[in-house]
Amino acid sequence: MDAFRDSILQRGPIERFALKTVQDFIQPQRQTKLAQDENQMLENMLRTLLQHLVASAAQSGEQIMQYGQLIDDDDDDKNVHGHGQIPHLLDVVLYLCEKEHVEGGMIFQLLEDLTEMSTMKNCKDVFGYIESKQDILGKQELFARGKLVMLRTCNQLLRRLSKANDVVFCGRILMFLAHFFPLSERSAVNIKGVFNTSNETKYEKDPPKGISVDFNFYKTFWSLQEYFCNPASLTTASTKWQKFSSSLAVVLNTFDAQPLSEEEGEANSLEEEAATFNIKYLTSSKLMGLELKDSSFRRHILLQCLILFDYLRAPGKNDKDLPSETMKEELKSCEDRVKKLLEITPPKGKEFLRAVEHILEREKNWVWWKRDGCPPFEKQPIENKSAIAGQKRRRQRWRLGNIELSQLWRWAEQNPNAEKDAQRVKTPDIADYWKPLAEDMDPSAGIEDAYHHKNNRVYCWKGLRFAARQDLEGFSRFTDLGIEGVVPVELLPPEVRSKYQAKPNEKAKRAKKDETKGGSLEEETKAVSAEGALVGGSTSEAEGEVGRGESEAMESDAIADTPTPEEQQRLGGSDTDNGQEAGQIEEAETEEGGLMDTDLNHPPMPIS
């Protein structure tokens, strides 16, 4: 470790010895870029060396960023001149990360370790180093590797700092994050709109003894801070809004009754004080009279009112969270009174009101951007292709009817590899298309319903079309589970995957159930067929017996009606005609009887 320390902290330009030192002690397989296990070995060595340097600085009583300060004879060498050993070590690692010799996130890990091992006084020097290297750390190859580590480092520093005593340092950290991360970065956006309800304003509940104070006004005044701390509570119950509006009316009436003069406003104004002044007003009832004469105090309260009104009217809320019509009218009247009071509050009341209105108007753009899902701000430039002025162009006739089809046909002839172009517009893969919805389904993401992709009709409609072509199994789950069931199971977070994941034996049970239904239906069909045959057979037998009985009765009637020989002679010729007619009738009856016998001997087929 001592040899590695001496080698990596040697004097001279970093580019001369940094890579050679890594090659000598790590002996990588490739000369210019380390593998994963080699990166891990080098990171462990650097973190151990950094820990030894911090411990040595603590024992010597020096500040860690000035410990072991290297003073080179060459004043033009800015890499080592005026730097301690720890900044020099960080410069070496930053150079290796920038040149992609080592993994890009190594410098961020060392900076996080350094802030955790340092006191708050030393953390200011460490953060000064981070600010000086902001341009290099913000490069894309380094930013992509260490943005989450840097965000965690800054958040840990903010938690350790006091918001009352370390205001400037907190502001430096927030300004660094605002410049380090792009505008469209979602990590800095309060997607859920959660309020800091822990910032509770404590005030006296019982009136003091021996002091004449309007204690009812005192309690009414400071009770407004409960609603300023959590404005969402005013939309949940109408009673809270009525209580808030009545308390606010009392405060505004008091401000109207006790206007401030220009002299009082200039004498008590804190705007020209030091920029590090942190306003945290005292809530003692003894100071109530003095605070009412403070113009900055009044502006503080009135500005809180305008912010609350702007939140209640903010776009993008659900219908249930929007204020009612009566509440909108009261909001408008209260807002007009507050703006009028701000305008007459010295000094420069009109200028202050215009600045506040401008800020609140700009805030609406932020709210709309959050409502639309935080789309990126960067847009590609548009090329202006203007036609030559004054030149008349003849209308062109297209080969295939319009410009789109003709252009498509010409591209196919000129560029046979157009379908292999990575930049062409094509149908996305089903997994890539459903990835935004799968991220919204993660409970830890905290996506509100208004911003959820499942409420985007066009997005869901296109997704169902893609699923019908590429994922029929997922498309079949839409009926039972809705649009969230169509998302591939492998994209879902583990905590919600079991809800949409089909059981392994579900298909087997469904197939067995269908087979059981098919067998029972076939048995019912056979039973109906057998019953029809049985009924048809019995019916034919009954009809046959009836037919035979009718035939026997007809034969007996014919024998009884046959005339004797004397009667036949007596009848003569007329009998011949009658006999012929009778014969015809008999033949007809015989034919009819034959048809009847035939029908009875062949019963109808049973219904199957």
UniProtKB/TrEMBL annotation:
Name of the protein in question: THO complex subunit 1
Biological processes per GO annotation: defense response to fungus; ethylene-activated signaling pathway; mRNA export from nucleus; ta-siRNA processing
PANTHER family named among the record's database cross-references: HPR1, THO COMPLEX SUBUNIT 1
GO CC list: THO complex part of transcription export complex
Biased segments, Basic and acidic residues type: 504-517
Biased composition (Acidic residues): 584-594
Disordered: annotated span: 498-608
